[in-house]
């Protein structure tokens, strides 16, 4: 009887010892892989049929600020494409603030400079495309602040996944 | 006994077994609990560390990737590798950027897994006696529909996790200490528990021993209602029934003995008359008519025999009643034995082999009875020469009576001190009362001595008596 | 030879012993009770009394004490039981000797003759003085100072034997043979008891005896005074 009890005790001890520690392991799943690579910065324009079209600029994804700047500084986007988002010759990257699932972009233009409603979509989609491609959540919305005039949003982009 | 057998027999005791079992269970329990908690803490620690490192890398890469050109050149890979820091490897197709010796720890299995998955993967490896965590991750491209696909850029990072090992070691050491601490406490508790369990067993043993040694009133006190209490009750019932039976037997025997004693005493008075008249008759026998002489002689002889028998019965009754007392006095044993032989006219038939003087403190009358009965027996049943040998040392006096007859058979020797025992069944009446040897044995016992019967080598029967030399002392 | 009074309640025993003792030459008187025995002792004193201890009415111990109170008449007691209690009680009551039933008449005869011999002069007729104790061996009298001491024949004989050689130790065994004429198995309690009674009569302080001294492990010694 003693021998059996001792045997059980030793087995339990051995098992316990084997369970703890950081011995070599096989290949384990380790969660989410990184992302953020993209062949250029996505910038949204409007085609002849009034649809939103993405255009890649540069060789990297870059930031929301850079993307917004690209959108606002583009006066002639190319054949068959227009921009209603207004223009500005800003030298600096735009101020971006993130709070919860809302990104606030401070635009160096007035609300009145955005000539059509779709111009707001251009701004929102450009910001959210960069956000999503750099690993951000599709549920995030964007709010557009203007120098003058009421802010727009928070809103989703109609051509991007919305959470 | 071999050492192993001795250990086995020591461990075989109820107490050691109880204690060992108790200690084993307690220590195993404590060790299992301590180690289980250490193990789960250790596992949690490892997992927390792994996911922290993986998360860091994922965040670092995700933060850096948007500023990287895609497809990347060597410079971009180098920059990414630098941002990851430590030992790291970044590949894209044939391009490769590596730093640190530990990148050799990236196993082929991990590399192939990284190529096949869209997840971050991990593997723990050991090298140089230290544990390492290897992380492999494909950098993904998230397209505008939300779908993700591998970009072809793969990163590998190798991290030293020996600090985790140290923390786990500390946890294990702590668990061992906890288990070790449980040992003395377990032993203490085991001793207490064993005492509690074994006390009734010990009481049972003590009481059984008392019962065995004749204390028929010995009983257990049953406590509680467990199996031991039932055992105690059964024991008590058995003891009570035993006491009743023995008491009944003792009462019957006491009655019988009292009857013998009473009858013997009652016989004394008529015997006194008979003895007196027998003596008159004996003196007158020659003056009687011839045909009356024989009956007269017979009557005289039988009267004397009857007187002796009653005398012996009364003596035996006195021993039975515990009324026999020892009256020790200074005795020169050689002279006392010599007087005994002379008084009975045996000096010519018996050889006395004794030291010149042997002083002792004995009951003179009882010593005479012992000697006379043994010598008388030897003369009646043995053959001459009869030798009485006396010896003494500081503590004891030894008296031996040896004859040169056929000796005593074993079954005779066993019963020779029984009352009315007759070795020769053909002889219906012996010269003596049949109580002589029994009285002899009782007298020896009263002195605190021993007596034995057997056959002497080269001679006949041998009776050996050993008496304490100073029997009266301390009385 | 001697006049013996046999006090015994059983008629058959009395008759048997009377017949046997008669054959040994004694003149035997018989009494069936203690009271009757005492009347005989008062009226016509015998030379010796043989007294059964187990008597109806007044028991043997009481009879013994009364005879002893009245004088130094020798008494041999007759015990049926032979128990230590009987023997010790009888000796303390003043008996000189004892026999156990059933006794052989010749043994009883020998005891009777021995006890009677104690009262006869022992050889030399000297008159000795030991301090205030005067022993007249011819007249068989003992005086303490001016007062004569009444001793039984046994007590007297014991004193005579002891004082014959003052300072010399006599063992109980020797005294039993000299005074009681017993064989080697004599009861030493007879000696011890008689010494007690003797001391009570001749010593100033019986518990610190001067004349009859105990020698532990050996016996008794007279003086030295």
UniProtKB/TrEMBL annotation, chain A:
Superkingdom of the source species: Bacteria
Protein name: Uncharacterized protein
Species assigned in the record: Prauserella muralis
Taxonomic placement: Bacteria, Bacillati, Actinomycetota, Actinomycetes, Pseudonocardiales
UniProtKB/TrEMBL annotation, chain B:
One CC-aspect GO term: plasma membrane
Organism: Prauserella muralis
GO molecular function: phosphorelay sensor kinase activity
Subcellular location: Cell membrane
UniProt KW keywords: Kinase, Membrane, Phosphoprotein, Transferase, Transmembrane, Transmembrane helix, Two-component regulatory system
Chief localisation class: membrane
SMART domains in alphabetical order: HAMP, HATPase_c, HisKA
Name the record gives this protein: histidine kinase
Domain of life the protein comes from: Bacteria
Reactions that this protein is recorded to catalyse: ATP + protein L-histidine = ADP + protein N-phospho-L-histidine
EC number: 2.7.13.3
Classification via Pfam families: HAMP (PF00672), HATPase_c (PF02518), HisKA (PF00512)
Presence of the UniProt keyword Isomerase in the record: no
Coiled-coil intervals: none
InterPro entries xref list: HAMP_dom (IPR003660), HATPase_C_sf (IPR036890), HATPase_dom (IPR003594), His_kinase_dom (IPR005467), HisK_dim/P_dom (IPR003661), HisK_dim/P_sf (IPR036097), Sig_transdc_His_kin-like_C (IPR004358), TCS_sensor_his_kinase (IPR050428)
Keyword flag Nucleotide-binding: no
TrEMBL record, chain C:
Transmembrane segments: none
Protein source organism: Prauserella muralis
Keywords: DNA-binding, Phosphoprotein, Transcription, Transcription regulation, Two-component regulatory system
One GO biological process term: regulation of DNA-templated transcription
GO cellular component term of the entry, any: cytosol
Name the UniProt record assigns to this protein: DNA-binding response regulator
CDD domains: REC_OmpR, trans_reg_C
InterPro entries attached to this UniProt entry: CheY-like_superfamily, OmpR/PhoB-type_DNA-bd, Sig_transdc_resp-reg_C-effctor, Sig_transdc_resp-reg_receiver, WalR-like, WH-like_DNA-bd_sf
SUPFAM superfamilies: C-terminal effector domain of the bipartite response regulators, CheY-like
A GO molecular-function annotation: transcription cis-regulatory region binding
